[in-house]
């Protein structure tokens, strides 16, 4: 949800900034802009509607030697995508330029106050108010002006600011939106997340809420926004490889990330399974008082979108095998409810980005009420990861395609490990623990087997790309996979789809079924297979077309279904991990068949850091 970048150093600012925007483009891609600064000269600022390549192209004819600059890729919240609404925004005097990720909640009040004082606004954004507010307090020192201005600001922000009249520094500030600083010899890089820094430096500082940074070419200071006191922060070293953020021969990140799933499962489970004892070893949970974990009487899983469906898969696993009652709540709902929490309730937040505003707000609410807070988070050092009492990282690596695939798979795998971890503290026998872990360890090879269906699924996608509606059905562990399959085809291919529990079909959706409304059944040979088969008969009786995902060797559906995709046999609780893969390939190839940019679906942003 908006990508921000900044540079100060000996190099050419524009080169890093454009590269950073390209890597951050998944965060927003309706417009982009850059502003660069050289002492004694006017700030040069260019903005373009559309993707980063439009901005990049427009910079080709001029020379860009400046050593200080800021840049932004936008996901519109206030004001349509247009050049005037694109960032950077600037003040009346053309002195202060800034880029912003977040939302200024009290911008209307501030704007009307500043307009009365004579400030002229050019855009419809909430962000522009910040440029004028800083202008109001600016004399000759940028950080002082920013500190004074931020005292009046309510909302969320990651801000990167430059001033023509204080040209040897960049000032940054953070509240509720992510920001990372990267340090190399004679250069400092600023970005929304560390993927932009790969190849430039591995020394980073994650900014915390309420912090401001004053960055010069060779130095930095971190201050408290509240009282201007100095905060001591030393860079951490991060591990990330350039290949993690490149397409590696695939046409789309989406396909690359689906095909990475076997490796992702290996990474998510590496060193975390003691097979011979049937125990999961999760260092992130071992830091807690184990009695507190043992005494958990209820888990509330909080997440949004796909992560909430992973939470539902986790709910089935935890209830069935660890014997713990679980509820799954959407972050956007939980934060406004009056949740009943006690010291034996654990709140477990699931998030790929670790920055989702609704999940984060719910987490903070749960903390305030004294619940034990846990996380299953992919992005290391993200706000949710740092705000929970303990948690487990997914180790799925950077997920660049906007639609979540490999991270979702890793979330389910981590849930399986957490189930064994918590289950073995309770009633789960060593035999059951061993059986689950043995099956988890086979998953990478089983996913590889599913991926061999690639050509078959691509052909199916061609066959079905012309349909305008789909119904996805699943039961028990695979009910959430029906939701996830429907969400993926909506977001990647812009085809209307509904995900339903199989048993719910006769309570309404069956009215829609005819030859133009294909149904995707997730029907492995499991404890509810016969029920799913009956649902198929009902669809067949109404001339509905059926695509079935079922277990290898199950040939008895050939009379009912139009098309079949086979997945290998595994433990029932792990079937969602295999069943998801064909649904991902199907959605991807339907989108590609329709000529869409499946990495960057319209209107979406990778991490939803606003409400
Ligand atoms: O980063 P998070 O996992 O917290 O994001 C949650 C959702 O925004 C995300 O899963 C979203 O639904 C994706 N578009 C799914 O592909």
Brief summary:
By secondary structure, the protein is of the alpha/beta class. The protein is built from 19 helices and 27 strands.
Structure write-up:
With 611 residues, the chain is of the alpha/beta class. It is built from 19 helices and 27 strands. Strands 3-2-4-1-10-9-11-15 form an 8-stranded antiparallel sheet, covered by helices on one side. The N and C termini lie close together (11 Å). The mean pLDDT is 94. Bound molecules: 5-amino-5-deoxy-1-O-phosphono-D-mannitol. The site of 5-amino-5-deoxy-1-O-phosphono-D-mannitol has 15 residues, from helix 10.
Furnish the topology, listing elements before pairings.
Layout: E1 3-9, H1 13-24, E2 31-37, E3 44-49, H2 52-58, E4 68-74, E5 89-90, E6 96-104, H3 107-116, H4 128-137, H5 142-150, E7 155-163, E8 170-175, E9 180-184, E10 187-191, E11 203-206, E12 211-215, E13 220-224, E14 230-231, E15 236-237, H6 253-259, H7 261-269, E16 273-274, E17 279-280, H8 283-286, H9 290-294, E18 298-303, H10 305-322, E19 326-330, H11 331-334, E20 345-351, H12 357-368, E21 372-377, H13 383-387, E22 390-393, H14 406-425, H15 430-451, H16 454-464, E23 469-474, H17 479-493, E24 496-501, E25 519-522, H18 529-540, E26 546-551, E27 563-567, H19 575-593
Parallel strand pairs: 18-19, 18-20, 20-21, 21-22, 23-24, 23-25, 25-26, 26-27
Antiparallel strand pairs: 1-4, 1-10, 2-3, 2-4, 5-6, 6-7, 7-8, 8-12, 9-10, 9-11, 11-15, 12-13, 13-14, 16-17
Helix pairs in contact: 3-4, 4-5, 7-14, 7-15, 10-14, 10-17, 14-15, 15-19, 16-19, 17-19
The structure holds 5-amino-5-deoxy-1-O-phosphono-D-mannitol.
5-amino-5-deoxy-1-O-phosphono-D-mannitol binds at residues 304-307, 351-353, 356, 359, 403-404, 491, 604, 607-608.
């Amino acid at each position: 949800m908006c990508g921000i970048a900044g540079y100060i150093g000996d190099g050419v600012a524009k080169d890093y900034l454009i590269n950073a925007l390209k890597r951050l483009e998944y965060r927003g891609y309706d417009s982009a802009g850059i502003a660069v600064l050289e002492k004694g000269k006017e700030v040069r600022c260019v903005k373009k509607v559309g993707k980063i390549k439009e901005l990049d192209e427009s910079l080709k004819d001029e020379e860009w030697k400046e050593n200080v600059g800021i840049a932004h890729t936008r996901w519109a919240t206030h004001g349509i995508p247009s050049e005037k609404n694109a960032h950077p925004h600037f003040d009346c005097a053309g002195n202060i330029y800034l880029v912003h990720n977040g939302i200024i909640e009290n911008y209307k009040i501030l704007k009307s106050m500043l307009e009365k004082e004579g400030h002229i606004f050019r855009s419809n954004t909430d962000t522009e108010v910040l440029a004028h507010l800083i202008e109001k307090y600016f004399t000759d020192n940028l950080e002082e002006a920013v500190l004074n201005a931020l005292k009046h600001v309510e909302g969320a922000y990651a801000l990167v600011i430059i001033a023509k009249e204080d040209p040897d520094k960049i000032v940054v500030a953070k509240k509720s939106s992510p920001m990372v600083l990267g340090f190399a010899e004679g250069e400092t890089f600023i970005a929304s997340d560390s993927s932009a820094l790969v190849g430039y430096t591995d020394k980073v500082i994650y900014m915390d809420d309420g912090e401001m940074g004053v960055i010069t070419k060779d130095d930095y200071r971190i201050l408290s926004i509240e009282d201007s006191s100095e905060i001591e922060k030393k860079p951490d070293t991060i591990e990330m490889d350039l290949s993690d953020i490149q397409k590696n021969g695939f046409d789309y990140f989406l396909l690359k990330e689906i095909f990475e799933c076997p490796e992702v499962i290996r990474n998510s489970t590496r060193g975390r399974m003691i097979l011979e004892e049937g125990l999961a070893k999760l260092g992130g949970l071992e830091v807690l008082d184990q009695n507190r974990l043992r005494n958990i009487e209820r888990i509330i899983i909080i997440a949004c979108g796909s992560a909430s469906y992973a939470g539902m898969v986790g709910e089935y696993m935890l209830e069935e095998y660890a014997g713990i009652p679980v509820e799954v709540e959407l972050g956007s709902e939980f934060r406004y409810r009056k949740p009943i929490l006690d010291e034996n309730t654990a709140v477990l937040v699931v998030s790929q980005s670790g920055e989702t505003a609704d999940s984060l707000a719910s987490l903070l609410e749960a903390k305030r009420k004294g619940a034990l807070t846990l996380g299953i988070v992919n992005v290391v050092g993200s706000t949710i990861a740092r705000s929970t009492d303990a948690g487990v990282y997914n180790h799925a690596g950077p997920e660049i395609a906007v639609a979540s695939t490999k991270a979702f798979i890793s979330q389910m795998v981590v849930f399986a490990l957490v189930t064994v971890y918590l289950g073995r503290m309770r009633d789960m026998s060593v035999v059951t623990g061993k059986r689950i872990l043995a099956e988890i360890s086979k998953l990478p090879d089983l996913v590889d087997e599913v991926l061999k269906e690639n050509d078959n699924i691509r052909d199916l996608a061609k066959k079905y790309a012309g349909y305008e509606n789909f119904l996805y059905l699943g039961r028990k562990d695979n009910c959430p996979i029906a939701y996830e399959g429907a969400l993926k085809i909506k977001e990647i291919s812009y085809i209307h789809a509904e995900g339903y529990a199989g048993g719910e079909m006769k309570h309404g959706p069956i009215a829609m079924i005819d030859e133009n409304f294909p149904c995707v059944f997730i029907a492995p040979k499991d404890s509810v297979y016969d029920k799913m088969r009956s649902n198929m008969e009902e669809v067949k009786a109404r001339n509905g077309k059926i695509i079935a995902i079922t277990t290898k060797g199950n040939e008895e559906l050939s009379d009912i279904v139009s098309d079949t995709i086979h997945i290998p046999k595994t433990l029932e609780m792990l079937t969602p991990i295999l069943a998801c893969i064909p649904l991902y390939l199907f959605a991807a190839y339907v989108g590609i068949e329709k000529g869409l940019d499946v990495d960057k679906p319209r209107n979406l942003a990778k991490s939803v850091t606003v409400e």
